[in-house]
From TrEMBL:
The protein's name: G2/M phase-specific E3 ubiquitin-protein ligase
Coiled-coil residues: none
Keyword entries, A-Z: Ubl conjugation pathway
Superkingdom of this protein's organism: Eukaryota
Domain HECT: 231-265
PROSITE patterns to which the protein is assigned, alphabetical: HECT (PS50237)
Listed GO MF terms: ubiquitin-protein transferase activity
Record bears the keyword Transferase: no
SUPFAM superfamilies: Hect, E3 ligase catalytic domain
Length: 532
């Protein structure tokens, strides 16, 4: 053990664990126990499991070739009883010299050294006692289990973050994220990145059951009403029929689009306020992120708008769009960037890295640099919801094709031109009426052209029930019709039908001022069905 590494006395904790435990199992369990019972333990730091001499626990000492570590084999080779076996937790830091040794070809090159803690690293010993093979591990009733996104084993939320980092280190089957396109053929028949999005959504739609289930919701309690229906009688694989309580609407597409729009707005504001998952233990415990993933999948496949509010970093984690490098030199350039070095310093890298062994570095960067601390369990739940219809598998097979659906700014924005291109105008056969209708439609188009992107989105929602064009597109063009015969001075407002996509404009709106004021009033009071 070096002079800078000292044992912190009085903080050794006994640990019960199976004799077949690997060093990864012991490390995860040790960190979890110190977090639970050691108030002075730095739970945010990353740790290695080491012997008393400071060498990392990975193989059994004295074996040739080195034998992978298991607790029972270590007991046999060392001759120690389980109660006498002691390991230590060592904070992982100062990996710059290791990176410099492996990545710097010139002996004159160097990396700026970051000074270690002058007081030395504190080693926290963990003692071990044998656990009966038939013993059962019990957890509090409030403890929730989530799947590891690498090995898919279930772990409590409290330890999943530590497990993922360690699991990435030992998972040799994980696809090499630094392979080139030529080295990584699409052996599993994944969809190509430039494939047709509509065709792929149509393929996923074949997984939707034709059985239509009616879900009645209240606008003020939309999320809670749906989650209750989801828990009691509705399954996301069924076709959903939405009814807004107290509104005379028959769901022929419009209410469903508006329902998905409102639900996705809730997801964005409450669960992903800045594109990243909010760090809410309550939301994870209530399975809100699981529900959000299911709603996203349902909206995409059943004709709703895009859930395009995820941060690019979050989408990269969901789609496994990791970094790629074609050479050792390019790998060196990536790893020596300031922000990557900051991340590596924070998480620690226990071995010298090269192109063949860099998988754990990439996994650590993605999990710790691209996602805020505490959000991993939320993402695991979100992924579980996105598995609906096989959507998550499709996303990972073709991440570039799906990116505009989930990441803002990647899709074409809804502009006034986009909206007007969706209109089909039904003019009267009478020349007198047609001329009047032409003037009215002219003022209507000028009003649309004066709107900003938010205003266009609100107008689109007024007309079709969604603020953006759904990935599948609209079932048909929006019909514009005109109503004659209003009394002089009438202030009735244009009406819409999101069921058959129709806008009806009264012909008394034949000047710019009336059109602008009446349209502003119509958009401001348009929430709900049968209210205008």
């Amino acid at each position: 053990m070096t002079s800078k590494e000292t044992v912190k006395r009085g903080e050794n904790l006994p640990l019960k664990i199976l004799p077949s435990a690997t060093h990864i199992d012991i490390l995860v369990a040790s960190i979890a126990k110190h977090r639970a019972f050691n108030k002075r333990f730095d739970g945010k730091a990353e740790y290695r499991l080491v012997y008393k001499d400071g060498s990392e626990v990975k193989s059994i000492p004295g074996t040739s070739p080195p034998e992978p570590f298991t607790l029972n084999r270590y007991k046999e080779e060392s001759g120690f009883g389980y109660a006498r076996i002691i390991f230590y937790l060592l904070p992982t830091r100062d990996i710059f010299e290791e990176l410099n040794d492996i990545l710097t070809e010139s002996p004159t090159s160097s990396i700026t050294e970051i000074d270690s803690d002058p007081e030395g690293e504190n080693l926290k010993p963990v003692e071990f006692m044998q656990q009966d093979k038939n013993a059962q591990v019990t957890h509090r009733e409030s403890s929730h289990y989530v799947d590891c996104p690498i090995c898919w084993a279930k772990f409590p939320i409290e330890v999943i973050g530590d497990h993922v980092h360690i699991c990435a280190e030992g998972k040799e089957e994980f696809a090499d994220p630094f392979s080139t396109a030529e080295d990584s053929p699409n052996e599993k028949g994944a969809i190509q990145g430039q494939g047709d999005l509509k065709e792929e959504i149509a393929k996923l739609a074949t997984n939707v059951k034709e059985d239509e289930i009616r879900v009645t919701v209240r606008r003020k309690h939309l999320w809670w009403d749906f989650t209750r229906a989801r828990n009691e009688y509705f399954c996301p694989t069924n076709t959903i029929k939405v009814t807004f309580c107290g509104e005379p609407a028959i769901d022929d597409g419009g209410p469903k689009r508006e329902f998905f729009t409102e639900m996705l707005e809730y997801c964005e504001t409450r669960l992903f306020p800045d594109g990243f998952p909010t760090e809410s233990v309550l939301a994870v415990a209530r399975d809100d992120f699981l529900t959000a993933g299911e709603v996203m999948a349902m909206s995409i496949v059943q004709g709703g708008p895009c859930p395009n509010f995820l941060a690019p970093e979050i989408y990269n984690v969901l789609s496994r769009s990791f970094l790629r490098s074609a050479s050792e030199m390019e790998l060196k350039d990536i790893l020596l960037k300031d922000h990557v070095l900051d991340t590596l310093q924070r998480i620690g890298v226990p071995a010298k890295e090269n192109k063949e062994s860099i998988k754990r570095v990439v996994e650590a960067i993605c999990m710790y640099d691209q996602t805020p601390a505490g959000s991993l369990s939320s993402l695991v739940k979100l992924e579980e919801g996105l598995k609906t219809y096989g959507l998550l598998k499709s996303i990972r097979g073709s991440p570039d094709m799906w990116r505009p659906v989930f990441v803002p700014g990647c899709e074409p924005s809804v502009t006034a031109t986009t909206f007007l291109n969706e209109l089909v105008v039904d003019f009267s056969l009478s020349d007198v009426k047609k001329q009047q209708e032409i003037d009215v439609f002219y003022h209507f188009t000028n009003f649309i052209q004066s709107l900003d992107s938010a205003g266009v989105g609100k107008t689109l929602k007024w007309a079709v029930g969604a603020t953006t064009i759904p990935p599948l597109g609209l079932p048909k063009k929006i019909s514009v019709q005109f109503l004659h015969g209003c009394t002089p001075g009438c202030k009735c407002r244009p009406t819409t039908s999101t069921f058959d996509l129709r806008i009806t404009i009264h012909t008394h709106l034949d000047n710019e001022d009336d059109m602008n004021s009446i349209m502003a009033s119509a958009l401001g009071d348009s929430e709900g069905f049968g209210l205008i």
